[in-house]
């Protein structure tokens, strides 16, 4: 009885708490959602995670500054904003993700949420106080719900008791069996029936997953690259053969377990070996596997050795937690890099004096021209990442100090794919496929496949490194020169 009252009591308190939270202005709620979706990977209100604790940052910074910072803190650091540079230095030059996609209003909601959370203690007491329960007062004072931890302990105790009770029941049953002179439960028979149930449920679930959820995967869509078609055909043939074998062997395995279950009378026959049978089940899989492996090796060699002299060279640079890309420019040669050069302005550590670097272009969005080969060169700043472009069937480890690459040719433009999928919001993506740290899942970059004309146009509007670094030393406002296409043109014409 006491247990039930305590459960009810904690339910009551939890719902009370949610009501008092619902009393806040709507922007706080919105802000909480946005904060949870975008910021919790690196921030908490009261403690340092990847970034600093955000408690009272709403009073520390002006609203405009806050908005600008969240939208693009790296830009602010580069432009030399004193506060931004100081924060960046204080946090070991860790980069915060840019949130250009958040609107001013959305960021204001986040600020409202940070404010509400920072002022939480007094607010919580005030809104819960009318219930005038001593429990709720102590609860908000400690900042934690003691009933929640109590409930967890209770659940653990109930689980232990349940296990003890089940053990007791079986103990009694086996005693009864001993007294009666035959087992009270025929475990052999129960296991046999369970095997059949497992076959039906498991096979049904596997088939359901394959046909229903399988459709949702990127692999169910046509590959958007030349080698991707070859890869898909290899994958599908392997899947078909292993799939058929899977279904036959699983049915045999579980059906026999059920059909010949122990009914208390049956005796196993002694059947030591059968050479003919063993020959069959060794030779056939050996032949099939050899065919699959040879096919796989051929496909692998074909994909990995496809070098094209004319391929556009693009460097993909992974860091915790994001990507940059560098285009080799008109000379199609990347400028040298050196990790010692990595700093506030030079995030990729490109050697600014290298002539090959002058026409390089650093971007936060990958563009490829359709039908033209590209050669991706991968580089990592900190830990091992894995560059994954699922629609193109491209994946390669990105390892600090170890250059890797992948050559491929995209075949479907973003616009064509949007039509094909009937999804006007579709975008190709570059993801990280290696669990590389707390905010690993945020490592995502937009990828656009353009027509060659669109691509040339886009590339021409991107400032080159020579344009963005050289004048920066003369002018005090580096950011202005980075954004100014005017400067790019004058440099380009020199
Ligand atoms: C990838 C990790 C990451 C994510 C995601 C992130 N931040 Fe940050 N944030 C940082 C780091 C690191 C710093 C410290 C400054 C620096 O090194 O750039 C920081 C600093 C800040 C600061 C300044 C703190 C101070 O002490 O003045 C604010 C404000 C801030 N972030 C807000 C946000 C908001 C709002 C979001 C979500 C929209 C967010 N951040 C998402 C990593 C992140
Ligand atoms: Cu990663």
Give a written overview of the molecule:
By secondary structure, this protein is of the alpha+beta class. The protein has four domains: 2-144, Cytochrome c-like domain (Cytochrome Bc1 Complex, Chain D, domain 2); 147-181; 186-264 and 274-304, no CATH class; 312-462, Immunoglobulin-like, CATH 2.60.40.420. Helix content is 54%, strand content 11%. The chain has a five-stranded mixed β-sheet, with no helix packed on it. Strand 1 (312-319) and strand 2 form a beta hairpin. The longest helix is centred in the first third of the chain and has 35 residues, at 146-180. The protein starts with a helix and ends with a helix. 23% of the residues are buried. The model is unreliable at 10-24, 123-143 and 471-494 (pLDDT under 50). Copper (II) ion binds next to loops.
Return the average pLDDT rounded to an integer.
81
Query: Largest sheet, order of strands side by side?
Result: 3-2-1-5-8
Strand content: 5-15%
Encode the helix/strand succession as letters.
Answer: HHHHHHHHHHHHHEEEEEEEEHEEHHHH
Largest sheet: 5 strands, mixed
* Highest CATH level, the class of the largest domain: Mainly Beta
What is the fold named in CATH at topology level of the largest domain? Immunoglobulin-like
Overall geometry comes to: flat
Number of strands: 10
Level-2 CATH architecture of the largest domain: Sandwich
């Amino acid at each position: 009885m006491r247990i039930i009252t305590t459960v009810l009591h904690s339910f009551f308190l939890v719902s009370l708490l949610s009501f008092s939270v619902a009393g806040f202005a709507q922007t706080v709620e919105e802000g909480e959602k946005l904060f949870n979706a975008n910021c919790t990977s690196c921030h908490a209100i009261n403690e340092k995670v990847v970034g600093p604790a955000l408690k009272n940052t709403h009073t520390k910074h002006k609203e405009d500054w806050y908005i600008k910072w969240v939208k693009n803190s790296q830009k602010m650091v580069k432009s030399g904003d004193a506060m931004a540079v100081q924060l960046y230095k204080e946090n070991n030059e860790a980069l915060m993700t840019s949130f250009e996609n958040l609107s001013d209003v959305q960021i204001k909601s986040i600020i409202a949420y940070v404010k509400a959370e920072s002022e939480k203690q007094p607010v919580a007491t005030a809104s819960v106080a009318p219930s005038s329960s001593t429990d709720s007062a102590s609860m908000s004072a400690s900042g934690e719900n003691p009933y929640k931890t109590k409930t967890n302990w209770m659940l653990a105790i109930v689980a232990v008791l349940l296990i003890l009770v089940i053990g007791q029941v079986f103990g009694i049953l086996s005693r009864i069996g001993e007294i009666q002179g035959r087992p009270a439960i025929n475990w052999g028979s129960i296991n046999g029936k369970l095997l059949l149930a497992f076959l039906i449920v498991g096979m049904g679930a596997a088939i359901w997953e394959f046909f229903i959820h399988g459709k949702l995967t990127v692999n169910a869509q046509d590959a958007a690259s030349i080698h991707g078609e070859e890869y898909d055909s290899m994958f599908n043939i392997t899947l078909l053969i292993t799939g058929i074998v899977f279904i036959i062997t699983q049915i045999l395995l579980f059906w026999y377990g059920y059909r010949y279950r122990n009914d208390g009378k049956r005796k196993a026959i002694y059947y030591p070996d059968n050479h003919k049978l063993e020959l069959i089940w060794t030779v056939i899989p050996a032949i099939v596997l050899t065919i699959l492996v040879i096919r796989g090796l051929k496909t692998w060699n074909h994909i990995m050795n496809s070098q094209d002299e004319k391929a556009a060279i693009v460097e993909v640079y992974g860091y915790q937690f994001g990507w940059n890309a560098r285009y080799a420019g008109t000379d199609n040669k990347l400028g040298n890099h050196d990790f010692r050069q990595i700093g506030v302005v030079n995030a990729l550590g490109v050697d600014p004096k290298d002539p090959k670097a002058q026409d390089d272009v650093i971007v936060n969005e990958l563009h490829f021209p359709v039908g033209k080969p590209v050669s991706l060169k991968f580089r990592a700043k900190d830990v091992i990442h894995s560059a994954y472009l699922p629609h193109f069937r491209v994946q390669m480890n990105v390892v600090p100090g170890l250059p890797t690459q992948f050559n491929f040719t995209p075949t479907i433009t973003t616009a064509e794919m949007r039509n094909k999928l009937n999804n006007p919001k579709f975008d190709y993506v570059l993801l990280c496929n290696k669990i590389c740290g707390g905010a690993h899942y945020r490592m995502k970059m937009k990828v656009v496949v353009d027509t060659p004309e669109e691509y040339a146009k886009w590339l021409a509007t991107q400032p080159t490194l020579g344009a963005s670094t050289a004048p920066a030393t003369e002018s005090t406002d580096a950011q202005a020169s980075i954004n100014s296409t005017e400067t790019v043109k004058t440099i380009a014409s020199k």
